[in-house]
Structure formats: C-alpha cells, structure tokens
C-alpha cells in the first residue's frame, strides 16, 4: 500500500517565507547603520560637555538609568567617593554594584578606587552580617575588574552625594530611587521611580 504525499496548498494571500526574506535582506544594512548610529550618538552624548544644574524625577517615571544620570559625571576619574547611608540591603548593594560596573565597563575608562561611606544595617546582628557579607562579596568581584572598593561607616551623615575630582553630585534620594517592586531582575530602563527627587550637579574644579 502506498501513500501519496501531495505538496501543501498555498493559502491565498499568504506570501511565501522565502519571498519575505528576500524583501527583508536589502533592508538589513540600513537597520545595522541605524543601530550603529544610535550607539555612536549615545557614546557621543556621554562624552559631551556636562552641565551644572538640577534634574527632577517624578513618581512612576521610567527610563531613568545610572548610565544616563550618573555615569557621565564619573568617567575618566581614577577614584570617586559615594556617601549614602542607605547601602544596607541586598537590593541597595546590588544598585551600587550596577553603578560601579556601568562606569568600569564604559569605553572611556572607569575608576581604580571607589570609596563608599554608608551606615551599618539596623535590625540586629543578622542584618549587619548580611550587609557585611554582601559588601565583601562585591569587593572581591570588583578586584577582578581592577577596582579597589573601600567601605567605611559613618552614622552622622544625612545627605547623600558623590564626589569626584571635578564634580559634586547631590543625590536627593541616594542610589536607591526605584520602586522596590519594579526592581526584581528588571533592566533599569523598565524600573519606575518610587518618589519625587532631584539630583544636583556642581562643578567644583572651575
């Protein structure tokens, strides 16, 4: 007994796959050029002259990243200091990690030394142990990137800021400004701002 296999019928109005591919191929160079130009523009913007002033951010706002609001001010710096008393929890230390690695991985060069001034975790010995363990793990990871992370504790600071050889960046809400519910394994671009805050940029090397 033989079974005859006939070619499948072509449904009316459906373009064959090879035809779609044939139409798309000529467009690929243009797409690649657009991507390349977008990346070049972003890199150029990061290297453009930086301005003093204040930027405000609103609750629910998205597409706010360290690469946009902080990294340009930290490039070409051998060292910088971050003062933020709220680098205590796993999420807050993860934020710190993201910022430092964003600077370190930039083509224009990152730091060799980063100094963190924060406060000890409250809530008991388990919280303090968890904070110390996470910070030590971050120190060990950054060594592989050629970065020395120094951590000191000072309970007297209220304000939060970043200091470089040229800039003082006042962090209205510190590094932890996203809504915690939007931060679980989510790219920074998709996280939402928790509360209104401002960042002010002062040029100290005039």
- The end-to-end distance, rounded to whole angstroms, is 92 Å
Count of DSSP helices? 6
Query: What is the string of helix and strand elements?
Result: HHEHHEHEHEEEE
Average pLDDT over all residues: 83
Beta-strand content estimate: 15-25%
Low-confidence stretches: 1-8
**How many β-strand stretches?**
7
Strand order of the largest sheet: 1-7-6-5-2-3-4
Cα-based radius of gyration, to the nearest Å: 24 Å
Structural classification:
alpha/beta
Largest sheet: 7 strands, mixed
Q: Percent of residues in helical segments?
A: 25-40%
Shape, per Cα inertia axes: globular
Provide structural commentary.
This protein has 206 residues and is an alpha/beta fold. It has helices spanning 17-24, 28-47, 66-69, 71-74, 90-104, 125-143, and strands at residues 53-57, 79-83, 113-118, 148-153, 161-163, 167-171, 197-203. The protein has a seven-stranded mixed beta sheet, covered by helices on one side. Helix 5 runs parallel beside helix 6. The longest helix is centred in the N-terminal third of the chain and has 20 residues, at 28-47. The termini are far apart. The model is unreliable at 1-8 (pLDDT under 50).
Give a short overview:
The chain is α/β, with parallel strands linked by helices and 206 residues long. 34% of the residues lie in helices and 18% in strands.
Keywords:
34% helix, 206 residues, 7 strands, globular, alpha/beta, single chain, 6 helices
